[in-house]
């Protein structure tokens, strides 16, 4: 069997090189069920509004991220032993923007007899077996795998983060207002794309439930002087096995249209050197009906006027490095930290005057919660000029 070379990303466009074989030869999963069905799976609570649900594999239950931005279903190498999979069944996985050969992993793939969600069996699903440790470092709700589009497209789905459910059915999810239908097209026959327009900008964006942001735009997006904007640089995107680095620009869009005429107001969007994505930062404000049987999506507002508000932050983002230290991974120009000489990569040695060295998962999750709930934060940094303690504000 020829090797697949797959870039499976949570937050970037996946790309596939399949040699001489057609992708359909590898994606032949099916649902075995008598009669019609509609079932609800509970969303496992998490701080990023991800649709994480419980699945069952070989009699054991695991937490999987429902990710329309992943072409392939992924399972942790803690569940399936890579050493027991044939050597010629290999996948090379890397960040789409990466040219660093060291960042790439060679992993294995296998066909699982069935994956159960509630009592519905999804059979003969191709799985990529991947080390998920890197991404789990930054998720306070750990995942054991990712439900990708090779499984998702087998039926229709309704994502309701507000009420904590992901429903799935072999029937189309209806809505009284048929004008709300947004047409879906597909990249590589699987990844769902929607048409986006804003003034002179018209483009397709990947509908990505594995992206916790609002809207990621391409670098040639045409802006105007009237748009509120800020720029920054550092690490901004977490893929399965690495973070990407570069420049990033944040803009506030007064409104944008999805599909022909579905309008959203006051959207915080980000311009960077990547592919356009529409993520959970927007979708969490709606009940999202994904009718793959009819190639359309319907967004049902939770209230009469759903708006994506402007996000307030401390002007920087923080992450865990490969030594389990907390460090600055991204800073906006003009932020308090940048004005005080802090740089991307500087280590944090104390949070609100509480010393830390190697940060534990519990400490990182508490720190994430503090950033969301508090408007003032005191951090101590180890910089080239020595330690600096700085009080920062949203």
From TrEMBL:
- InterPro entries in the record: PDZ, PDZ_sf, Peptidase_aspartic_dom_sf, Retropepsin-like_bacterial
- GO molecular-function term, one example from the UniProt record: peptidase activity
Keyword vocabulary terms for this entry? Hydrolase, Protease
GO annotation terms (biological process): proteolysis
Is the Hydrolase keyword given for this protein? Answer: yes
The protein's matches in Pfam families, at most eight in alphabetical order, are given as: Asp_protease_2 (PF13650), PDZ (PF00595)
Question: PDZ domain spans which residues?
Answer: 324-379
Protease in keyword set: yes
Q: What is this protein called?
A: Aspartyl protease
Q: Which source organism does the UniProt entry give?
A: Myroides indicus
